[in-house]
Amino acid sequence: MGVFTRKIETAPCTVEISHKFESLHAHVRFNNGATIEPGDEVQVQGPEIMAPFGEIVTEDREAVILRASAIERLWTRLTGDVEIMELCEFSFSGEAKL
């Protein structure tokens, strides 16, 4: 794999969607042991999965993995810490009222 080239792979996967009061999540597990590295993109093929409230839905699907180039991988590693901080909200106020 070169510095600027991207590689496309397909992998069978299991998708689990939970829509419960205790847990609201969506997980993808690759059945062939594929791993995702920084900068890679994953697209699960097929129609949208809707889980009714209180249930967990599990389906087998096919995923397309677009591997990042060497430069994209490096850029993601260098800027990842800065981007994650955008998701954090800090408050140092001692006068918080609810």
Strand content: 35-45%
Largest sheet, strands/sense/barrel: 4 strands, antiparallel
Domain count: the total is 1
Number of strands: 4
Approximate shape: flat
Strand order of the largest sheet: 2-1-4-3
Instruction: Indicate the percent of residues in helices.
Output: 10-25%
Low-pLDDT ranges: none
Rg from Cα: 18 Å
Order of helices and strands: EEEEH
DSSP helical segment count:
1
**Pairing-aware structural class of the strands and helices?**
alpha+beta
How far apart lie the N and C ends? 54 Å
Average pLDDT for all residues = 86
Describe this structure in words.
The chain is of the alpha+beta class. It has one domain (8-85). The protein is built from 1 helix and 4 strands. The longest helix is centred in the last third of the chain and has 16 residues, at 70-85. It starts with 6 loop residues before the first strand and ends in a 13-residue tail after the last helix.
Features:
98 residues, alpha+beta, 1 helix
What's a quick, concise take on this entry?
This protein has 98 residues and is an alpha+beta fold.
Which secondary structure elements does this structure contain, and how are they paired or packed?
Blueprint: E1 7-19, E2 24-30, E3 41-44, E4 55-67, H1 70-85
Antiparallel strand pairs: 1-2, 1-4, 3-4
